[in-house]
Design brief:
The protein is an alpha/beta fold. The protein is 28% helix and 24% strand. Strands 3, 5, 6, 9, 10, 17 and 18 form a seven-stranded mixed sheet that branches. Strands 13-12-11-14-15-16 form a six-stranded parallel sheet, sandwiched between helices. Strands 2-1-4 form a three-stranded antiparallel sheet, with no helix packed on it. Strand 5 and strand 6 (73-76) form a beta hairpin. Helix 3 (131-144) crosses helix 9. The longest helix has 14 residues, at 131-144. The two termini are 14 Å apart. Bound molecules: NADP nicotinamide-adenine-dinucleotide phosphate. NADP nicotinamide-adenine-dinucleotide phosphate is lined by residues 40-42, 45, 132, 136, 156-162, 180-182, 186, 201, 224-225, 229, 246-250, 271-272, 309, 312, 314.
């Protein structure tokens, strides 16, 4: 079968689409014929050697929509072995697609408990876009920040795969959304999806002050930029606000403890989500709600897909069509 495998840490140039043996499922596993799979920033980070515990070579890919041997269409929960504590993952848990061979392949083996029926409403590409991004955004907004209808939520870098889920899920929950992005075109798309206030952080160096002027102090903020952005976010929150961090695209953050203790903020970390988070998140898509699919690439064009993510050109999820 074909598999997109990473062999080094010099970036997407170290990816090879190659022929490897079709995997054989173990007793507790299902064999999935992958139809579509989506990129996540971790796939890019792994090619760049910027991820903990990298073991090479390996087939990348965490998200998948596919079919089982009995013909049923399914989506895969990429969070493997979360464990029994809904508050935190088990030390032995992992994410599909390094170290385990992932979904950028004609076939992938996953634990049976990670296989979920695919909502009929969704195309293969839409379903493939959902798992990792939808799970991370759902847990950030609801399990961790406990977002309530009517509250104001700040979403930094709304063009990102996970952040577009944060936008649509927050709107569905009745929140007021303030979104920032590097690009006016992305902000226009965010408005079409319901963003109430938008700001270009690249053109407006004082974007954090503008957030307060436009929308007041946020109750909740969801950030994966880290770096200077996270510190700015903490500086503008409402008293008792909740700030959720799940990534550090810009690297380590400089934060002012004063902003946190003086305003009684909750600074909350989150990663992926529990099986209950996944099931609750997937249910939200069994209706009119759709994930934001940026572009679909043929499997052979995967290097172009990685290039698009590296340039941060996407708005939403970049998807690979693997098979018919
Ligand atoms: N802990 C977890 O479980 C988990 C799960 C998923 C992702 N992550 C992490 O979260 C991050 C995003 O992942 P992803 O897959 O959604 O990536 P992605 O689709 O590549 O999105 C990255 C986005 O970051 C935004 N960004 C870049 N510079 C920024 C800045 N100065 N201020 C605000 N936003 C900025 C950009 O948004 P604009 O284009 O709108 O400017 C960009 O589109 C990565 O670091 C990833 O490793 C962690």
């Amino acid at each position: 079968m074909r598999a997109l495998r990473v062999h080094g840490n010099n970036g997407p140039g170290d990816l090879r689409l190659e022929e490897i043996p079709k995997p054989r499922p173990r007793e507790n596993e299902a064999l999935v014929r992958v139809r579509a799979a989506a990129l996540n920033h971790r796939d890019l980070f792994i090619t760049q050697g910027k991820y903990p515990g990298i073991k090479l070579p390996c087939t990348l890919g965490s998200d998948a929509c596919g079919v089982l041997e009995n013909g049923s269409r399914i989506v895969v929960n990429p969070m493997l072995n979360w464990g029994n504590d809904s508050r935190v993952w088990d030390a032995g848990s992992s994410i599909l697609g390094m170290p385990h061979d992932g979904s950028f392949a004609d076939y992938v083996c996953v634990p049976r408990e990670n296989v979920f029926p695919c909502p009929d409403e969704l195309s293969d590409e839409e379903a493939a876009a959902i798992p990792l991004g939808g799970l991370t955004a759902y847990r950030a907004l609801f399990t961790r920040a406990r977002l309530r209808s009517g509250e104001t939520v700040l979403i930094t870098g709304v063009g990102g795969g996970v952040q577009t889920f944060a936008l649509i899920l927050a709107k569905q929950a009745g929140a007021v959304v303030v979104a920032t992005s590097s690009s006016d075109a992305k902000l226009e798309r965010a408005q079409v999806l319901g963003a109430d206030h938008v700001l270009n952080y690249r053109r407006d160096p004082d974007w954090f002050k503008s957030v307060r002027k436009l929308a007041g102090a946020p109750d909740v903020a969801i950030d994966s930029a880290g770096g200077q952005t996270l510190g700015r976010v903490l500086d503008i929150m409402k008293l008792g606000g909740r700030v959720v961090t799940y990534g550090a695209t810009l690297g380590d953050a400089d934060i002012r403890p004063f902003s946190v203790f003086w305003r009684h903020l909750d600074l909350l970390g989150t990663s992926m989500g529990s099986p209950d988070d996944f099931a609750a998140m997937l249910k939200l898509f069994a209706g009119p709600l759709r994930p934001v699919v940026d572009r679909v690439y043929a499997f052979e064009k995967a290097p172009d897909a990685f290039e698009r993510m590296g340039a941060a050109d996407q708005f939403g999820k970049i998807v690979l069509r693997i098979s018919e």
